[in-house]
Design brief:
alpha+beta; eight-stranded parallel beta sheet; six-stranded antiparallel beta sheet; 14 helices; 31 strands
């Protein structure tokens, strides 16, 4: 049985790779002629709702879930958008060996008792949630076994039975399980974990101790190079294809939980609706910063239908409990600004008013749920203070967040230029509701330790007749970013390991993203600069890249392009090209040390602009950083 399963897996991965190798190598920088960004599922805005894990871990049951659902409805949270009620690990009893059908643990979900002792169904459960105006979510693993079977061995509600019966993950049962969960049981959302392809290798003590089947470890969280990226993507793609087949109306949400590993940054948007950018969050300030940082600089990789996911909210626990409301509001505000899914992880049946007032802040929720889907972009960055600015759908309106990550009060100055505005700016504090005016060049604030101030800003745009591309990241699809080898991001906050003592060198960065496309910065976190000229607006990306930009409603494109001064590759030239719906509109060639060149293109009747930066006769394998300075769409 083990050999057959391993062979089947090997064939799946090999087929995916050989199929790619068998095809003629297409030019990845050739214009597509249309938008190829995310299309699957129904996550037009970041999903909102509740998940059982941070509240109950595996000690979940129907009474707790339905009690929570009732609070969502009665409190008005449902009407704000918190509609997904998601069961995490702990719901399963076993996999029936006669036909492979999953069995619900009816002792904790009694409504699932249908058809006798050997049959169970979540349909009564999901039907009830749907009648309440809510949607239902379920949890599984991409491999054979789940995370709790490796890490929560003393917890209740672990799968029972023989080795085969305890294999409750998707491995070998993708089509059967997805059809069961969506077509038969009526779920609307699925979270797919990755422990089954990470911690059940032949040398794992837990495998030997608990007699699990051995599966090769495809993910090495300490080494991107030792991770089988194509195989991991192929497994998640198989789930995506099956979800689409089982949901012909497209009404589903697919959450990829591979913790930022396997370079999911580069392909998550093409496969699922949200993807974890880090390991698990814990209710500690430092860990919250770690997970936030893993997503906060990736604005160009997210947008309507596809979202960066720094993990679920921990508001209500630990450093974010009712005794730490400053930290709790900051946690919630940060998630809202970067368009993270707002998934509550608290026992809402016992939630105090102070916590309910955080989740129910209509203005902060509105920032997160803005239909433009533009993740906030860093306007100022340091280890202590950060300023994020997010473009909202309303013309001339933005959200701005001033965050003090440190332990001492910080003096923070805000300027109209940071907001890409001119003249006086009207500010409304979205927590206190106080109003003020940013008149002149600067408005100063004293931000308390671990506090975040969030404002709605209204004023005149710097570009009265257009938008800088860095203002509208949700309208950009990074089709190819030029990264040839994923590199761990070294600027993510590191904290002491929440799961162990300080007995080694500490938790190293392991999440690919260093070198990816950035708004208003280079891929390596430097100021955009070409031949000494600094651009405060623009896109920084590597050569051999292609971006797609939604151009409907605009009539002109312009940018000043060149090889960035920060590049390590000083030899190679770059050809910059602008395409409109597949037709070449403008072109320029640049080398290091040359002044930025102006590219301009008429966009009459153009729906999709494509921006290509291609190395010309490359001689070096060093990264070649390029800048699209002041890149903008004009009306």
């Amino acid at each position: 049985m083990l050999k057959a399963t391993l062979l089947a897996f090997t064939l799946l991965a090999a087929t995916a790779l050989s199929a790619t190798a068998a095809q003629p190598a297409a030019d990845p920088l050739a214009p597509a002629g249309h938008w190829t960004g995310a299309r699957a599922g129904r996550a037009a805005t970041p999903p909102m709702g509740w998940n059982s894990w941070n509240a109950f871990r595996t000690d979940v049951d129907e009474a707790k879930v339905m009690g929570t659902a009732k609070v969502l409805v009665d409190s008005g949270l449902r009407d704000l958008g918190y509609v997904y009620v998601n069961i995490d690990d702990g719901w399963w009893l076993k996999r029936r060996t006669s036909d492979g059908r999953m069995q619900v643990r009816t002792a904790i979900f009694p409504s699932a008792k249908v058809g006798g002792s050997e049959t169970s169904s979540f349909r009564p459960f999901t039907d009830k949630l749907h009648r309440m105006g809510l949607k239902a979510g379920i949890y599984t693993d991409i491999g054979g076994n789940s995370c709790s079977q490796a890490y929560d061995l003393h917890s209740p509600n672990l799968p029972e039975g023989t080795t085969a019966e305890r294999q409750i993950g998707l491995r070998g049962h993708v089509q059967q399980d997805i059809k069961l969960y969506f077509a038969d049981w009526g779920f609307d959302y699925i979270k797919v974990d990755a422990c089954g392809i990470n911690v059940y290798g032949a040398d794992s003590p837990v495998v030997k101790q608990h007699k699990y089947n051995v599966y090769p470890s495809l993910i090495d969280q300490a080494s991107i190079n030792r991770t089988n990226i194509p195989a991991v993507r192929a497994l998640y793609q198989q789930v995506a294809d099956t979800l689409a087949a089982s949901n012909p109306d497209g009404d589903y949400v697919y959450s990829i939980c591979a913790w930022g590993a396997a370079d999911v940054r580069s392909w998550g948007k093409e496969v699922g609706n949200l993807w974890r950018t880090s390991g698990d969050i814990t209710p500690q300030w430092g860990r919250m910063l770690h997970t936030f940082d893993s997503a906060s600089t990736r604005a160009l990789y997210a947008g309507p239908g596809h979202w960066n996911d720094p993990d679920m909210l921990f508001v209500g626990h630990g450093d974010f409990d009712v005794h730490h409301l400053t930290e709790a509001r900051t946690h919630f505000s940060l998630w809202a600004m970067i368009n993270a899914p707002l998934i509550i992880g608290y026992d809402l049946r016992n939630a105090p008013p102070a916590l309910m007032s955080i989740w129910s802040n209509k203005d902060i929720v509105r920032v997160n749920q803005d239909r433009g889907g533009h993740q906030a972009v860093l306007a100022y960055d340091s280890d202590d203070v950060q300023i994020f600015v997010k473009t909202l759908s309303d013309s001339g309106t933005k959200a701005v967040l001033l965050s003090n990550r440190g332990l001492a009060p910080a003096e923070v100055s805000l300027t109209p230029a940071q907001l890409k505005m001119v003249g006086d700016v009207a500010l409304t504090d979205l927590w206190s509701k106080k109003t003020m005016t940013l008149a002149g060049d600067t408005l100063k604030f004293t931000v308390q330790p671990r506090e975040s101030r969030v404002f709605e800003a209204r004023g005149k745009r710097q570009l009265a007749d257009g938008m800088y591309l860095s203002e509208i990241p949700g309208a950009i699809n990074i089709a190819r970013d030029g990264v040839t080898m994923p590199v761990p991001d070294p600027v993510i906050h590191r904290m002491s390991n929440p799961w162990g003592a300080t007995i080694n060198g500490g938790e190293r960065p392991s999440y690919g993203g260093w070198g990816g496309a950035r708004a208003d910065a280079t891929p390596y976190d430097q100021a955009l600069t070409v031949d000494g000229k600094v651009f405060t607006s623009g896109i920084g990306i590597l050569a051999n890249s292609r971006m797609e930009v939604k151009a409907a409603g605009f009539s002109h494109f312009e940018a000043k392009v060149g090889v960035d001064d920060s590049t390590r590759n000083l030899k190679d030239k770059v050809v910059f090209q602008v395409f409109g719906d597949g037709h070449l509109l403008a072109q320029a060639t640049a080398a290091y040390g040359q002044a930025a060149q102006t590219l301009s293109a008429d966009l009459a009747n153009v729906k999709t602009v494509e921006l290509v930066a291609r190395s010309e006769a490359p001689t070096s394998d060093l990264p070649l950083v390029v800048t699209w300075g002041d890149a903008a769409l004009r009306e």
